[in-house]
Amino acid sequence: MSAIAARPLNRTLLLACTPFLGMLVWLFVANISVQLSERAYPQPAAQTSPDPGAAAGPALEGLDQAKAIAQGTGQSIKKQLSLYQKTNADMAQIASIASTQASRPYQIYDRRITRKLGSPAATIQSDKLEAQLFYLGTQNFQSYALKIKLKQKDAMKLVLGNDKEGSAETTLSAVNRYKAAIGVNAGGFADGGGKRYPLSTTVVGGKYIGGFQPTEKDLFFVGLNGSNKLIGGKFSSQSQLDALGPKFGASFVPILLKNGQRTVIPDKWKTSPKRAPRTVIANYKDDQLLFLIANGYNENGSSGATLEEMQILLQRYGALDGYNLDGGGSTSLVFNGRVINSPSDGTLRKLPTHFLFFR
């Protein structure tokens, strides 16, 4: 492009910019300042520090409310606990009164039967049993009564002589060996081959020694079940006896009392012998046991008690069921480690079975 052609263009541009240039000169000469308000600039967000009092107020109010609720709950729990304890105490008192009232008939009954026996000469009292020994004032013979209340299942048991079938030992020996408090001779026996065996059905620890033998003629079985209740009678089958749950027991002849009534004594046993040392086991309606022991100087029938006299004593002392155990020289009564009766053999006889009682 030539210089001649460029000049018109420059002049045109100069004319276009002239107004603006004039405005700038005027502003400079007039010294006019332009100020913007504070709102024209962005402001930083206000930083406010928290007021501790204002923040703590609601929190403290919440804590106070929680504390009040806790205190109210605690008081309610205390009241409930106090009521619970009082209720328990009242129930315990009611139970005690009920137990006392329930036992009153038995206490009265026990006092009545004890009064018939007289004043006990000796007593053994323990957690397992209460045993009372009485000296009886019988006319034709010297006799004793042993009344026992069993409190625990392991308070009484039957043991074999030296714990072996066919072996024998005295009741005192068995008492000492087992550290028992009391010992009484048990069932009859039969000798054979230099050994002494229990007569007929015998149960030790729930097991039959030598097997079950049906009762014949006048024989009977007598013992205790798992509830310490006296069981006895004649059994033709093992299932009959098993139904009573025998824990231990032995056999002899004859039965003397059933339900408080005398049984008929076979003629054979009335005179074989007529009088002899006797051992009888019986029970009361509250399941206490009664043993009657009669002394005799020999076994020829001239001393001791008759079976009819033992029946009279059983009824006199209020017994329910009564069974004649082995007597004569076998009669043995050991109380607190001392032999109480007078053995007709002069010394205690060795026997295959013994009833033992434990403190």
Automatic annotation (TrEMBL):
Keywords of this entry: Glycosidase, Hydrolase, Membrane, Transmembrane, Transmembrane helix
* Matching InterPro entries: NAGPA (IPR018711)
Task: Give the superkingdom in one word.
Answer: Bacteria
Phosphodiester glycosidase domain spans which residues? 179-358
Gene Ontology molecular function: any one: hydrolase activity, acting on glycosyl bonds
Q: Keyword Hydrolase: yes or no? A: yes
Q: Does the keyword Translocase apply?
A: no
Tell me where the transmembrane regions lie.
Answer: 12-34
Q: What is this protein called?
A: Phosphodiester glycosidase family protein
